[in-house]
Amino acid sequence: MPPDKNGDFAFLLHILKSLKSTGKGAVILPHGVLFRGNAEARIREKLIHQGYIKGIIGLPANRILRYRHTCLYYCDGQRTGNSKEGHLYD
Which residues pair with 16 in a beta bridge? Predict the structure, then answer.
């Protein structure tokens, strides 16, 4: 369950829940999402290990309005099970 204060992971979980099993998705989130701890760290770890997150791309600064640094989460509705593979581009 994502924390009440930050809706970033709630939005990401909503996108994943909305995907069909063959669907693909991409979500742009603030860069800080990569480094927050506690509940968000556990959610991030589970999504990666269960194979829902296929890659994370750090986007250049000031490319998205309102956020100085952002990242793009690439998601797949067809999870691959216990995956230790993923891609992080910065």
Answer: none
> Residue 14 contacts by C-beta under 8 Å, 6 or more apart in sequence?
none
Q: How many CB atoms lie within 10 A of CB 1?
A: 9
Coarse DSSP helix, strand, coil percentages of the chain, rounded to the nearest 5 percent: 30, 30, 40
Token pair of 72 as six digits = 């793009």
| Burial status of residue 36 (CB atoms within 10 A of its CB: 0-12, 13-18, 19 or more) | middle
Over the stretch 26-75, which tens digit does the pLDDT of each residue have?
888 888 888 888 888 888 888 888 888 888 888 887 777 666 777 777 78
Q: Where are the domains of the chain?
A: 8-89
